[in-house]
Amino acid sequence: MHEFSIITSIMEVVKSEIEKRNAIMVLEIQLEVGELSFLSHDALQFGFRALAENEPKIDKVCLKIITVSADVKCRKCSYSGSMKTIESEVYHTAAPVFQCPECSGPIDIIKGRECVVTNVRMEVD
Amino acid sequence: MHQVCDVELGADILAANRRIAEDNTALLETHNIKAFDFLGAIGSGKTLLIEKLADILQSRGIRCAAIAGDVAGDDDYRRFSAHDMLVVNINTGKECHLDAHMVDHALEKLDLENIDVLFIENVGNLVCPADFPLGSQTRITIVSVTEGDDMVRKHPVLMGSSDILVVNKIGLAGVMEVDPNVLSRDAHRINPHVPVVMTDAKQGKGLEDLLKVMGL
Ligand SMILES: Nc1nc2c(ncn2[C@@H]2O[C@H](COP(=O)(O)OP(=O)(O)OP(=O)(O)O)[C@@H](O)[C@H]2O)c(=O)[nH]1
Ligand SMILES: [Mg+2]
Ligand SMILES: [Zn+2]
Ligand SMILES: [Zn+2]
Fold first, then answer.
1. Which domain covers residue B16, as residue numbers?
2. Is the same domain home to A53 and A77?
3. How many CB pairs under 8 A join A and B?
4. Does position A1 have pLDDT exceeding 70, yes or no?
5. What is the interface pTM, i.e. ipTM, of the complex?
6. Do residues B67 and B103 touch, judged by C-beta distance below 8 A?
7. What is the CATH classification number for the domain harbouring B205?
8. Which residues pair with A64 in a beta bridge?
9. Mean pLDDT across the stretch B202-210?
10. Is the CB of B51 under 6 A from ligand 1?
11. Contact residues for B94 (Cβ-Cβ < 8 A; gap 6+)
12. pLDDT of residue A116
């Protein structure tokens, strides 16, 4: 729901990079979005296209979104790694289960909530 | 000749909020304040629950305060103010959630020396507040039986971001033909460790149980 403000921040990051490098054109922006974040990829793309419309130096189809899968760490045993999921027709997708896949203990989330601009590919002089 | 170059950035868009949230937590802890943020669908009973909990706590001599987050208006602010609490109103305007920065400013307006428990009511929204930690130590999600029995399974990830789940308005379960145990069972399938408390804020049911799991 707040994808537009997220995209606005991404645009600021990219624009300051354009300025710094005196770039001619941005060809690709790589964005990593954690699978446990609440950001919708469609809404991000939509917001991006809308804002890029007014940015002659940013190709409006160049946002590449990569889903980052979640990693957790158990508070009881030494498990660290991916989450257990349940597949069930009541959930639209496989739903993550917030417990240790090994010992069923409580877990902390290490990875999977982020929204990171990892790479900007641009044309420079 | 033009050339193509890759610039590695690693700019975390949500990191700024997270950092401010950590500062808020540190500030609250310096003042020995226990803070709880309440999130849940529109009308699920966030304000009424906080009002009732505050009454009980204040009668025990525990000093409460509240931050009322709403898109517009001061309805919740007025309701909290009637309970002898320090209250700050935040209107988020276009934004669909509170963020740590707004809470930081609200904290500046509160006399932190004279608060034991702080309630933060988020904007009614079950989707995105989870991306924006505010700095409270405990996050409480409220669903009510009037929203139907599929509320929890429609928002699986939110269950993993909640420390406590409240199923409210259980007095209406019969008329709504909703089994509150379905909500609780769905929550435990996703997050087996989350404490689930059944309440009816209107009738004052389950409030003591809720205070217990809140550690109060
Ligand atoms: N019957 C019944 N009504 C309730 C209960 N809890 C809240 N209500 C009523 O539900 C309505 C909405 O309650 P609020 O406390 O304003 O809900 P809220 O979640 O703060 O609403 P927003 O801030 O607008 O998102 C009010 O009319 C309350 O009196 C309950 O447990 N039982
Ligand atoms: Mg309210
Ligand atoms: Zn939002
Ligand atoms: Zn384990």
1. 2-213
2. no
3. 112
4. no
5. 0.82
6. yes
7. 3.40.50.300
8. A30
9. 98
10. no
11. none
12. 96
